[in-house]
Amino acid sequence: YFQMLSGDDFSLIHSLEKQYGINVSISRKKCQELAKCAYESGLGMRSIANQIRNMVDDSLFANPDCKSLKF
To answer: Considering the entire predicted model, what is its pTM?
Structure first.
């Protein structure tokens, strides 16, 4: 999961960037945390996708004018 998430062509990140008109970047440490959670939960990439969407939504709710998010 970590390799899929940390790759430059992770489509969820690109689709969120297009959808919201923002830049999204995820640190290596956060990628590892998300991958571990996805593996342990057994939900895989669906778990990662939901967590990333929630992080983006929460950040944009708190700061709707934000153009760049780093996690």
So the answer is: 0.78
